[in-house]
Specification:
The chain is of the alpha+beta class and 121 residues long. The protein is built from 2 helices and 5 strands. The chain has a domain of 83 residues: Formyl transferase, C-terminal domain (Methionyl-tRNA Fmet Formyltransferase, Chain A, domain 2, Roll). The chain is 12% helix and 26% strand.
Length: 121
């Protein structure tokens, strides 16, 4: 609607009789939960990427900032250790999620990443 310049204001009462309320973000809300499905991890990272607080996870006792991940359509659903690094290239790596895996493509980390390393859960 924004792109088509066809936006019409609506009173919130028309959307829901009680309205919609969210609480304020607090320190710790940026912690990434690998026990979520890949789509949920993707949406979480996308929702708090820069200029927001940026998703965070711990690997080898060091904090990693994760600013962008790629959701891989049709990735196989399988059981494996959640939060493990499955594959690594020069600029990205795959992480096992609850259902399949995602590719981390933009991150800051002052450490070494190896296949088999596990994020703290």
């Amino acid at each position: 609607m924004f792109k088509k310049d066809d936006l019409k204001a609506q009173k919130q009462i028309k959307l829901h009789p009680k309205g919609f309320y969210c609480n304020q973000r607090k320190i710790g809300d940026e912690k990434l939960n690998w026990y979520q499905a890949s789509r949920e991890v993707f949406n979480f990272v996308r929702g708090i990427c820069s200029p927001g607080p940026i998703a965070r996870a711990k690997l080898n006792n060091k904090e990693m900032k994760i600013n962008k991940v790629e959701f891989i359509k049709n990735a196989p659903i399988y059981m494996c250790t959640i939060g493990v690094i499955l594959n690594k290239s020069t600029d990205s790596f795959l992480v096992k999620t609850k259902d399949s895996y995602i590719r981390v493509t933009e991150f800051e980390f002052n450490g070494v990443i190896k296949v088999g390393d596990r994020f703290e859960i």
